[in-house]
Design goal:
Blueprint: H1 2-26, E1 31-35, E2 44-48, E3 52-57, E4 62-66, H2 75-101, H3 112-148, E5 160-161, H4 163-184
Antiparallel strand pairs: 1-2, 1-5, 2-3, 3-4
Helix pairs in contact: 1-2, 1-3, 1-4, 2-3, 3-4
Family: Belongs to the claudin family.
Protein name: Claudin
Organism: Xiphorhynchus elegans (elegant woodcreeper)
Length: about 210
């Protein structure tokens, strides 16, 4: 019963992490910068994400522009895109595999060994998905930090961490933690020892002495 609860907890955490990875990938706030001109009315906030860049005026109006060409993008941005998309696809596969191996599901009830293996395999997929998202967000965050502290970067174009990065870090951690719980939820097999053999009893003496 305890392993079933741990398994359910792991699946819920991993599923929430997968949803968070999707939200982080779609958000445009991967890095943000605020710029105010001579008049506060002209103040605006700039956001850049994996798919578009946005500008929010002080009046609250937001304008976004999707990146025109994939080939014109930087290689680092394309690699970050690929890692996040791979994390989403792996998470989708992990959902189906883990659901199949859940103890509360009736599928594969006739073979409990395969059912446990499916749950563990789903947990491994979730861990890989979380690691892919963690690498992507950390790599992107490292680039933002290096550009921010670069003295040659203009002050009005220095970006900081956006909310999508924090969501991505939290989501990848949940996916890894949930996948670990799924891998540890299966009870270990008890070691079976062969039955001890009894020693044969000595044959009862017949009461006759032999010379």
């Amino acid at each position: 019963m305890a392993s079933g609860g741990l398994q359910l907890l792991g699946f819920v955490l991993a599923f929430l992490g997968w949803i968070g990875i999707i939200i982080s990938t779609a958000m445009p706030q991967w890095k943000m910068a605020s710029y105010a001109g001579d008049n506060i009315v002209t103040a605006q906030a700039l956001y850049e994400g994996l798919w578009m860049s946005c500008a929010m005026q002080s009046t609250g109006q937001i304008q976004c522009k999707v990146y025109d060409s994939l080939l014109k993008l930087e290689g680092n941005l394309q690699a970050t895109r690929a890692l996040m998309v791979a994390a989403i696809l792996l998470g989708l596969v992990g959902v189906f595999v883990a659901v199949t191996g859940m103890k509360c599901m009736k599928c594969m009830e006739d073979d409990q060994v395969k059912k446990m293996r499916m749950a563990v395999f789903g947990g491994v997929i979730f861990i890989i998905s979380g690691l892919a998202a963690l690498v992507a967000t950390s790599w992107y965050g490292n680039r933002v930090a290096r550009a921010f502290y670069d003295p040659f970067t203009p002050v009005n174009t220095r970006f900081e961490f956006g909310s999508a990065l924090f969501i991505g870090w939290a989501a990848s951690s949940l996916a890894i933690l949930g996948g670990s719980f799924l891998c540890c939820s299966c009870p270990r097999r008890e070691t079976s020892y062969p039955p001890t053999r009894g020693y044969p009893k000595n044959a009862s003496s017949t009461g006759k002495d032999y010379v």
